[in-house]
């Protein structure tokens, strides 16, 4: 698991701003790419699919994001 400023449990769900970072709240990115690039790669199947939490709310499994980071680092 990558080392971050916050420890995130593997079964947690991550919102988009937690993955790509947020300048307003000084949240560092786990994956330093833009929002559109991330969502386009989700759409084409390169990145993991999100989990729908509500009508307008989605999140990604932390374990899927860690696997993606390990794959990209290899």
Distance between the termini: 13 Å
Tally of helical runs: 3
Question: What is the radius of gyration computed over CA atoms, rounded to a whole number of angstroms?
Answer: 12 Å
Category from helices, strands and their pairing: alpha+beta
Q: Please trace the helix and strand order, writing H or E for each element.
A: EHHEEH
What is the strand tally?
Answer: 3
Shape annotation: globular
User: Which residue ranges are poorly predicted, with pLDDT under 50 across at least 5 consecutive positions?
Assistant: none
Q: How much of the polypeptide forms β-strand, as a percent range?
A: 5-15%
Proportion of residues in helical segments: 25-40%
The spatial strand order of the largest sheet comes to 1-3-2
Summed up, the domain count is 1
- Main pleated sheet: 3 strands, antiparallel
Mean pLDDT: 89
Overview of this structure, please?
With 74 residues, this protein is of the alpha+beta class. It has one domain (13-73). Helix content is 35%, strand content 11%. The protein contains 3 helices and 3 strands. The protein has helices spanning 16-20, 35-43, 62-73; strands spanning 13-14, 51-52, 58-61. A 3-stranded antiparallel β-sheet has the order 1-3-2. The chain is globular. The two termini are 13 Å apart. The model has no long low-confidence stretch (mean pLDDT 89).
């Amino acid at each position: 698991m990558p080392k971050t400023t916050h420890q995130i449990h593997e079964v947690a769900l991550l919102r988009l701003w937690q993955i790509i970072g947020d300048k307003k709240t000084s949240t560092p990115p786990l994956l330093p790419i833009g929002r559109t690039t991330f969502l386009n790669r989700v759409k084409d199947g390169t990145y993991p699919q999100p989990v729908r939490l509500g009508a307008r709310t989605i999140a990604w499994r932390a374990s899927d994001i860690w696997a993606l980071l390990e794959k990209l680092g290899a």
